[in-house]
Records
---
Amino acid sequence: MTNLQMDVRGVVKKFGGRAQLYRKLCVAKVELSHRTIDNWIQSGVIPMHRFLQLMALAKDEGFTLNLREHTKNETKKARVTDSTGTEKQA
């Protein structure tokens, strides 16, 4: 099974770090708290409406923010157990 993971730290770093991103969003009149960005980093998720705002901000800053560049595939092997709970080859 493939699980997509967002590289939130990479997105934030592209804007110069957490504090710089917060300042840039404030200048762009995007209302959020500094804690919001911390929550993105901690959870590993940026809500889509916020990612779209970041894409617009990136365009204003003169670069492109692409979701594909900031996602990683993690392949997880299916875990199969027998009736006693012993793990078996999938």
Note: Strands lie at 2-6, 71-75, 80-81, 87-88.
---
Amino acid sequence: MRRLVLLLVALVFVLSACAAPQEDARAPIEAESLAQEPEGQPAESAAPPGQAPGLGRGPQNVPNINVTQAYVIDSKRWGDIVWTLELPMSRYIYYRDRLRPEVFFDYAKMAEDPMDDDIIDAIIERVKKTAAEKGLDRKDQLSLVLSFVQSITYAEDIVSTYRNEYARYPVETLFEKVSDCEDTSILAAAILTRMGFDVALILFEQFDHMGVGVDYYELEYGNSWIYEGRRYWYFETTGGRSLGWAPDEYAKTAAYVLPVKN
């Protein structure tokens, strides 16, 4: 009987030892399940045709806080100008997660988006305040907006987002304070359209470059493109060019004119 008991104990020990590797084999499955979407939050679906995804799902319970961003406008005509904006964190996360047009030709829709009108209007209030303080006329205000968007740090998408192409909504550009040509063009178009100007995005497809065009009667010199009887004077948003003047390589190049709805 004693031998039988010892034999059974030994058998249980052997079976327990054999079962240990099975527990290790389940570890990767548990780790994989931890990497899935938390319960109650649907997994991100593929973007529909013609749309590109945002940078991913942000925090789901965003605190109701504002982030203060300062922008230093280096103007040779009017000296350094500093503007500050209060940007809701929740609005930034909202835009960061939103789908966006996949092709240049639809980027005007991003400038027309109404969900950021209050933030764009806050910028316009700063334009008006600066204009009143420095005696700027309507044409000067165009140059001021140009200087503002040119003050935002330039970085190619592959550097700032690790994507070959990523168009930002205006709130993303204002929050991150980094952009490339289409981002500052979308931002400038949103501001100028809300100010009542007739605006279009100017696309140089062969150079993979975008700027802004403004149809304004007081502009007489520089580079322009005509679309449906309206002359859009060029607005280079990523360099130090003055209002109306395009870089030499674009000045004599055919371009797509993409009007922004007011």
Note: Confidence is low (pLDDT under 50) at residues 1-45.
---
Amino acid sequence: MRANVMATKTLTNRLLTALALSGCLVAGLAPVIQAQGLPGLVIFSGVERENQLSFRLDYNGRPFQRDRYRLRISRQKMLTEVSEFTVTYPETYEGTFDDDNIDLRINGENVDLDQVTWDRESREILIYPVEPVAANTRVEIVLSNVRNPRTGGTHYFNALVRTPGDIPLRRYLGTWIISIGRE
């Protein structure tokens, strides 16, 4: 009888341990599964953590498919008023953009744009709002109708800004580390 009680306790302990471990495994995988549409965890990127910017790919970054990129700049990065936003991207990125489908959202609201230019040779997108964007505001650059590159890979897009009346040098705000084809 005593052996049965001991066997039951041992079996119960093993089941509880297995249940606890599987719960930890599921909880640990949840952020990895959702990381495709969000920046996720980037360990060895070469970009300091404080310079990594948030983004979202609405259609999961599938190679050679249409997508929408939501490139975000937090209010903590917006230290001064901004009259020009520039998004640069590397030579390894062979996707295409639709400069007629680029929006700038400030604190969740679309703002009027004076001009948007996609310079293919310089590998940059220039965005000029009609009015300068105030400091300490949330910014989202929405690139719609993007054609992702044919092949997957990780691409570093940089955020640069110019302030009104500033010397004509752009200031670096951070980097979006965008992975294509990492489903």
Note: The beta strands are 55-57, 66-73, 84-88, 102-106, 109-110, 113-119, 124-129, 139-147, 153-162, 171-180.
